[in-house]
Amino acid sequence: MNDSSPMSSVATSVPGRSRRDPMILWKAYVGTVLVVWVVIAFGFHYWREIIHHWQMAVVMIPGSLVAGSTAMGGGTVAFPILVLVLHQPPANARNFGLLIQGLGMSSAMFFMIGRKIRLPFRFLFGTTLGAPIGLLLGTFLVGPHVQNSITQLLFSCLWMSFGLLILLGNAELRGLQGAAPPNTANTQRVGLLVGVMGGLIIGIIGVGVELCVYCVLVLIYRADLRIAIPTAVCAAALASAEGVALHTWLGDMERGSVMDLLAAGPLAIFGAPAGAWLASIVPRARLLYFVAGLCVFQFFWTLQQVARGRAEWIFAGVAMCMAAILLFTLYRVGKRREKLRLSYSAASASK
Fold first, then answer.
1. Is residue 343 part of a domain?
2. 346 falls within a domain
3. Which of 97, 122, 280, 339 could covalently link to 183 via disulfide, CB atoms 3.0 to 4.6 Å apart?
4. Mean pLDDT of 128-136
5. How many domains does the chain have?
6. Is 245 inside a domain boundary?
7. Rounded distance, CA 232 to CA 25, Å?
8. Residue ranges of the alpha helices (H) in the chain?
9. How far is CA 19 from the centre of its chain?
10. Cα(95)–Cα(333) distance, rounded to whole angstroms?
């Protein structure tokens, strides 16, 4: 057949038209953010004020890498810096954490979608529905009654428990080969509960839903870290966006937090995806031990700075004991589920 025939041209042109850049969403998101940033910085002449917030740009270089490659949000790195070094109120640190995670981790989420990383969508949908409920509870019912020192210790104990989980269970966690949770109504209900708990914590300190998601996926569902970490990143991105919407509506977003965002934002939208890529090439054990080291360091640093009296020490001790009990309970539930699943698989195979 002649190569110039109509049938030949159709056969060669259809595949060409069907090709689509899998990273189109991420590129569109990054392009939009950069255009908006240029308009704000230069069109509205905020450039000089943005420069004065260079410290947060420096902080968020490692912060965004950690956010994209682990279950820790970028606000986890920013919170202790803002509170303990720059001496800002915890509410400011919370709002900046929401802003930077809503921007940077959304970039990582679109990046992961473009790379076709498997995600448990029903579980993720549940956390997205539950997070606003927890946000409202944390923002209006719990947060206003918590002292600044207790807020800082809550943040510190939360991530110290995560660090201990890594240190004590690193070998087992790295060896998990489990699939994502099934896309069932029950999984969605579990995600809803996780979202409520994570949203409650976010309403107080600006981060936390990612830790809740990660712990449930690896401890109860025994999910592979290549599933658990991207899911935690996406859950944090969505919950942070909800938190930003809430506090924008409340009108309590400080000008300083917004300027910190403008200073660090262009780095975060590239740093978080770079962290996601880094996680695919760097041995997982090194990343986990690095994260654990950060958690332990910030815990003792916060204690040294904040724990001035008996009340703070009692709170830290009780919080760590409760965290240990909760994590151990989740671990036992997960092991029991895994044993039942293996027994069912063996029984099915023998029939």
1. no
2. no
3. 122
4. 96
5. 1
6. yes
7. 20
8. 6-18, 24-38, 47-51, 54-69, 74-80, 90-114, 121-136, 148-174, 185-205, 209-215, 225-250, 255-279, 284-306, 310-350
9. 32
10. 35
Domain span at 79: 22-327
- Triad 271, 274, 275: Cα angle to 5°: 90
Nearest CA to 236 among 71, 78, 81, 351? Answer: 71
How far is residue 249's CA from residue 240's CA, in Å, rounded to a whole number?
14
Q: Is-contact 146 289, C-beta < 8 A?
A: no
Q: What is the pLDDT of residue 166?
A: 81
The torsion defined by the Cα of 244, 250, 256 and 258, in degrees rounded to 10, comes to 30
Tell me how far apart the alpha carbons of residues 302 and 134 are, in angstroms, rounded to a whole number.
25
- Structure token digits, residue 146: 């918590």
The two tokens of residue 260 are: 């910190």
Residue 37 has a pLDDT of 96
Q: How far is CA 231 from the centre of its chain?
A: 8
Q: Are 25 and 114 in contact (CB under 8 A)?
A: yes
- 13 pLDDT more than 70: no
For the entire predicted model, the pTM comes to 0.87
Are 154 and 289 in contact by the 8 Å Cβ rule? The answer is no
Inter-residue contact 221 to 194 (CB < 8 Å): no
**Does residue 155 form part of some domain?**
yes
